[in-house]
Amino acid sequence: MDISYVLVTGATGFIGAQIVDKLLARGLKVRGATRSPSKAQSMFSARPNYTSKLDFVIIRDFEQTGVFDDAVQGIDAVIHVASPLTYDTTDNENELIIPALNGVRSILTAASKASVKRIVITSSFAAVLDLSRKSPPFFTYTSADWNPLTYSEAIAPCTSAVVAYRGSKKFAELEAWNYLQTHKPQFDLVTICPPMTFGPIVHPVSRVEDLNESNVQLWKIAAGEKPLPVTRVPFWIDVRDLAEAHVEALVRPEVGNKRFTPASPEHFSYEMAAKVMLEEFDWARGRVSEEEQEVDVSYGLDGLTVTKELGVKYRSFRETVVDLVSQAREMEKNSR
Ligand SMILES: NC(=O)c1ccc[n+]([C@@H]2O[C@H](COP(=O)([O-])OP(=O)(O)OC[C@H]3O[C@@H](n4cnc5c(N)ncnc54)[C@H](OP(=O)(O)O)[C@@H]3O)[C@@H](O)[C@H]2O)c1
User: Fold this and answer.
1) SUPFAM superfamilies annotated for this entry (predicted)?
2) Residues forming beta bridges with residue 197, ordered by sequence position
């Protein structure tokens, strides 16, 4: 695929920044989109070797129609990562679901008026998971599966932010697939549905308290919080492998209009994370919980198709935990 200049939304976030670095390392030009001039400046200053290959656009409100019209000019492809990921909400529909939907609408509409050839969207395993499916017998989720949650269930006042977030990812991804059917734009689409994503950070964060939602769970364990977080699903991926999956999904012509579920074949629990910390770090002994937590191996998620079609090989859980926790421990020491 002939792509040289890529717009990345959510470029200053945990996953987005890793994608930016993978694109730059492949020699591609990158335009990052962010709401925050200071985060843009930090990302830019931290990459002195890429000053001619990296620029940022400030989009204060991603939800408004037309805000991406200028940002997509000259762009060959878009990786749309930005979406609200927080469980600290008071109004799930307005804080999680509508922003996710409007963000997709806004970027797709702008792209259809420019010369964008492909859009890759970071969806989530949350858009795949069906809580009514129970094992035994053993079953494996694939990219053909969709979360059956309805819009009214997702916005109901009694619905938790976790479930509403799952709705936000499902409805935003569906919006993109429906847009293709209805508007038949010149670009094709690839969606990526990762499970829990952990690993080292390359985005601007200086305090462990400000780590993104998924990594913060690992840090809470390292910080000695008890009990261990609940392991809702046993699937995970390293952020560096996920960034590679996005970039491969962007550059391989043959994967257009496909949906992928990148995931490590290793199932995890937070007890496994605690054990890695206890084995690898002297400081963790006496601090990190030794609570038991079963690893759920009663069902699976197909990560193999991504290895076959996108060439991604997965890191081990140990490597991911060690790399993030070592980095976060240094941040903790430096912020004292
Ligand atoms: N982390 C995981 O475990 C995981 C797993 C599966 C899928 N995902 C998906 O991956 C994507 C990125 O997640 P992440 O973990 O990298 O989160 P993150 O670190 O919080 O980054 C998300 C980025 O999106 C932007 N953003 C957030 N809310 C926004 C809004 N209302 N309007 C516009 N921009 C907004 C923010 O950029 P600015 O503040 O710079 O504007 C932020 O840097 C999300 O789509 C998430 O659903 C994450």
Assistant:
1) NAD(P)-binding Rossmann-fold domains (SSF51735)
2) 237
